[in-house]
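Record pair follows.
FIRST:
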Amino acid sequence: VQLQASGGGLVQAGGSLRLSCTAAGSYRSIGWFRQAPGKEREGLVCMRVSDGDTYYSDPVKGRFTISRDNAKTTVYLQMDNLEPEDTALYFCHTERRFVDYWGQGTLVTVSS
C-alpha cells in the first residue's frame, strides 16, 4: 500500500483546510494521525471502507470530517474551526496484514 498526503499549510485560527491522501492498494480501513512538536503521535480519525463507518477522537470530533472520493483512490480530511493546538504534522495511515503504512507528513500550522 502506498500513501501520499498533501494539503497542509498555514491558516488562521477559525479557518479551514482540507488534507488529501492518495492511497494505492487495497485496505480495510484508513485514517489520519498527527504529531505536534514535542508530543507523541495521536490518532484522529479512522474510516472502515466496507461500510464507511468512522471513528473520531474527542479533540477533533465535530470539527474534522473524513471522506473518500467515488473512485476510492483519495481520502480527505476536512478540518474546520482550526485552533492553534491543531498545529502538527499530519499523516495518513492504514494497516494491512499487521503491517503499518504511513504517508509522508503534511504540515499544518494554525496561527492565533
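SECOND:
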Amino acid sequence: QVQLVESGGGLVQPGGSLRLSCAASRIIFSDYGVIWYRQAPGKQREWVATVRSNEITTYANSVKGRFTVSRDNAKNMGYLQMNSLKPEDTAVYYCTMAGTWGQGTQVTVSS
C-alpha cells in the first residue's frame, strides 16, 4: 500500500518562503507524477502543481512564478518550494500519487 507523508508546513509571514516535502514509500516512485493540492478553510480542494514522471511541471495560475515543484527519484521525495507567500496561500497542502493522498500539512501565512 502506497504511503505518502507531507512535512514542512508552518506559520510564515507574508512574503516568506516554505518548502514542503512529500515522502513516498511502497511505490515505484519514478513511474508516477507527484501532484500537490491545497484546501483552505471553507473552500474546495484545489490543484496547485504537478511534476510528472518525465519531470514536466505545471502550475495553477494562482501560484505560477512563486511556487516550484520538483522531485528526487533517488530519495522517493517530492517537493513544493513556495516563495512570496500570501495570506491567501493559507491552506492544508496535500500531495497525491497513484490515487493515494497524504495526511496534509498546514501552511499559514499571516503577520
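COMMENT: The CA atoms of residues 40 and 91 lie 4 Å apart.
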